[in-house]
Amino acid sequence: MNFTYRTVQTLIDQSSRLWDLRDRRTDGWLLIDSPQTPVLICLSYLFAVKIIGPKLMQNRPTYELRSVLLVYNTFQIFFNGWIFYHTCRLTWFNGYSFICQPVDYSDNEDALQLIKMGYCFYISKFIDFLDTIFFIMRKKNNQITFLHVYHHASIPLTVWIVLRFVPGGQSIFMPTFNSLVHFVMYFYYLMAAMGPQFQKYLWWKKYLTVFQMVQFFLVGLHGMQLFFIQCDFPSSQKKLNKRTDGWPSMGSPLMPFLLCQASPILFKVIGPKLMQNRPPYELRGALAH
């Protein structure tokens, strides 16, 4: 009993100390002030798309939604393009380094504008939930894959951590590239929603898939730098235990969270596909050791 109490108390104390390291510039902002908000929204999304949505549509006819999709995709094109442009203007076009870029925690105008861009990106991840809602209403259940739902439900939580602890610096690469990918992706969706006469212009779908895969590879490669180079990112996280400063993945809660986020994709999607046409490996010797 005492051991359980001490363990729980330690977790509470460490969580409180970690929370004290948050970036207080975003305190009080809508949907981001506390971790409960994005968690509840993402859980509600899962409940809606896995249980409520399919039940509601079970005995209903398919909705066309052509006009809605035209408006929605057009909005997404402009919104993601706007985020991409202003993020690049504040970072890569403003002297940011791709190798090692610390977070600017000051009240510098560019730093504050970058946080606002990050907040817009965060809001866009909740707007993306409509992708799944529209699939359900159109009964495109083949599009609602594990990867689709997992990606939509987990990305807002990742972005929340970034905004609350490391809003800028090295972590800005992912939202920048992701906004570009979404800009191109929703342009494709817009053309597809325009009708059969535009099908001949959609020959580049396979290249869009390649572009999305390149995104995952480059974002992962960019993030892996922190395992191998000494980088002052994020400096504010190096306060809980200075003895572990410089240890791989110990500088921030972001890195282990990203690894945990990536593991279901590896085990559920990538792994089975890689082994689909391969014989089983014995591994007896490896497992014995």
3D architecture notes:
The chain is built from ten helices and no strands. The chain is globular, with a radius of gyration of 21 Å. With 289 residues, it is mainly α. The two termini are 36 Å apart. The chain has helices at residues 2-19, 36-57, 66-90, 109-127, 129-137, 146-165, 173-193, 205-228, 254-274, 284-288. The chain has one domain. Residues 235-239 have low confidence and may be disordered. 64% of the residues lie in helices and 0% in strands.
Number of helices: 10
Number of strands: 0
Tell me the series of helices and strands, N- to C-terminal: HHHHHHHHHH
Number of domains: 1
Largest sheet: none
Label the structural class. Answer: mainly alpha
Strand content: under 5%
Report mean pLDDT, rounded to a whole number: 85
Radius of gyration: 21 Å
Amino-to-carboxy terminus distance: 36 Å
In helices, the fraction of residues equals 55-70%
Shape: globular
| Uncertain regions spanning at least 5 consecutive residues | 235-239
Protein name: Elongation of very long chain fatty acids protein
GO biological process, one term: sphingolipid biosynthetic process
Subcellular location: Membrane
InterPro entries: ELO_CS, ELO_fam
